Amino acid sequence: MAELSNPDYILDRRRLRRKLTFWRVVGLVLLGVVLIGGIARLAGLDPLSASRGSHIAEIAIDGLIVGAQERLDLIEELGKQDKVQAVIVKINSPGGTTSGGEALYEALLELGTKKPLVATIDGVGASAAYMAALATDRIFARRASITGSIGVVYQSPNISDLMDKLGIRMEQIKSAPLKASPNPFSPTSPEAREAIQDLIDDSYEWFLDLVKERRNFDDATARELADGRVYSGDRALSVNLIDAIGSKEQAKDWLVSEHGLDADIKVIRRDFDEADAPLTLAMRALFVTFAKTIGLSGGDSGFLGVVSAPAQLDGLISVWHPILD
Q1: Is the pLDDT of residue 280 over 60?
Q2: Domain 52-151+228-275: what homologous superfamily?
Q3: Model-level pTM?
Q4: Which of 80, 174, 179, 266 is catalytic?
Q5: Three-class SS of residue 252?
């Protein structure tokens, strides 16, 4: 009984009640945001669109291109939003997986049937990134940008000589000679090399057909340009791989003049998170709060970096000088 009347005990109890009340309020607010966002998404509404007004959306394609479903979802979402008058695709990427480039190309091609669509190459727009640019109505690039590198490559390390020197042998039993070939533990057979070359040639011809169709090249011209080399923006313009020198400002001016948009229309950057906003925003806030509570450093990027899976390149790649950590 004496403890219950102790001033320090009473103060501790009051502090505990305040903390519990605070976290209950935070939990209820987050739950409300998640529920409202979920209802809005089910109803087909964009919770952030009311504050934007009519605008040109700008989306970024940067880094290595893989099968990023978040990006594809955002592209699909932009096609449904009436307040998006046009889309600028800002590219700074050396390329990535051929299948990732194909998915991105098809998503942008579909978006182009609903909205005016232009690409701007800022820095690098090569291989699968150039494939994505082909899906747009007009391609802009800076004079010193790098583009082209039209082609496909399959890479497989081979450490068989090193294993021989170390006296290590990999035992392998397989259903057919070409199963799991090539592999890093034995020299590549002529038959395996021929099979992989057939795969490369098939994907290359498909990429080449996209270039011919979208840039109006005959077969001979396309093959001459699509030999894997890269081009500066100036050179790419001279051979008709792009349409104009410029960046976002010139792309906006073209959209305004060609499609009758308001000259004062804003260009607003749209990011992946918005495809599921405000659900994603609420979950991010919850993650960050939890990270700080348990003492993880780095805040938003640090905690989310821990729980995010690293990007991987599997299969055929269409990329110019990838840098892998």
Answers
A1: no
A2: 2-enoyl-CoA Hydratase; Chain A, domain 1 (3.90.226.10)
A3: 0.72
A4: 179
A5: helix
